[in-house]
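Renewal narrative, Specific Aim 1. Our central claim is that a sequence can be written position by position from structural information alone. The example that follows is taken directly from our test logs and has not been curated for this report. It begins with the structure tokens describing the chain, in the order in which they were read.
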């Protein structure tokens, strides 16, 4: 058990094997004591019993546990479908595995996801038994028209294949990232947590011959494998009107149109959702782009 930012927390390993091969690390936060929750304007909001965060199977501590299952010849090493994250979310919330003794069918569940996570929440609705989401909060939903998606895929794959993923130490990684590009705009707490929790020591299965330094838990191979998937995002693009019809959906975009162009956001709202009136709410966050959650 640990405490951070006013929350008590505990980590769990969710194991759906043998039905599904990939483990997931989940973290539970409860009894929040954050000063933000004492804002008088927040008194009208529902009381939050607990918060659960679930890694994608190839991200964070889940990726470390799944190193062998994600490795060469696994089928996940070239394309990691976002459907896999959606399936993991569904298995977890449906209790179809071991390691988390909670009956989520008795809870009022609000799904919150960013980018690939937002898509995966939508994909989790396509399995049975159905998850009874009370609402969805989708931030920077990463889906768009086919032609634009293919262009974005090529850019992300090319960038991911060239991105640095080894540093001499966590402290040096922090100092290097803090001074460069996108990372300069991140909230310092987010960047420090990214380095501390998102990196681990060498050697790893990805770099068995490197003995010094640290690398990302979500390997460069897996990052790029995520970018190559076009089916998962496409499914949500085609089905978004059904999602907003079934579940109150809150859509959030950054006010800066960087990774997702303004025309894409307009298309999602006006065509795929059928208009702002079909959303529970629509928000643009000033001064933020795709990585709004990191600012």
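The sequence written for that structure reads:
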């Amino acid at each position: 058990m640990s405490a951070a930012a006013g929350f008590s927390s505990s980590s769990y390993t969710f194991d759906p094997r043998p039905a599904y091969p990939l483990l997931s690390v989940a973290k539970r936060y409860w009894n929040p004591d954050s000063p933000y929750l004492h804002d008088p304007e927040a008194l009208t909001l529902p009381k939050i019993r607990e918060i659960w965060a679930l890694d994608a199977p190839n991200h964070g501590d889940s990726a470390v546990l799944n190193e062998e299952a994600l490795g060469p010849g696994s089928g996940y090493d070239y394309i990691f479908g976002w459907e896999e994250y959606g399936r993991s979310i569904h298995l977890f919330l449906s209790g179809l595995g071991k390691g988390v003794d909670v009956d989520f069918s008795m809870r009022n569940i609000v799904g919150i996801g960013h980018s690939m996570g937002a898509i995966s929440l939508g994909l989790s609705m396509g399995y049975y038994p159905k998850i009874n989401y009370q609402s969805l909060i989708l931030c920077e939903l990463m889906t768009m028209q086919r032609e634009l998606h293919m262009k974005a895929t090529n850019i992300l794959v090319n960038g991911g294949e060239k991105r640095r993923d080894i540093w001499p130490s966590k402290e040096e990684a922090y100092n290097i990232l803090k001074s460069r590009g996108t990372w300069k705009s991140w909230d310092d707490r987010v960047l420090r947590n990214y380095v501390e929790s998102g990196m681990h020591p060498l050697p790893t299965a990805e770099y068995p011959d490197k003995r010094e330094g640290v690398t990302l838990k979500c390997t460069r191979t897996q990052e790029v494998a995520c970018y190559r998937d076009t089916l998962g995002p496409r499914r949500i693009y085609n089905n978004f009107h059904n999602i907003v019809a079934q579940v109150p959906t809150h859509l959030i975009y950054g006010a800066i149109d960087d990774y997702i162009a303004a025309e894409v956001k307009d298309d999602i709202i006006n065509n795929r959702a059928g208009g702002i009136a079909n959303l529970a709410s629509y928000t643009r966050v000033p001064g933020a782009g795709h990585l709004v959650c990191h600012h």
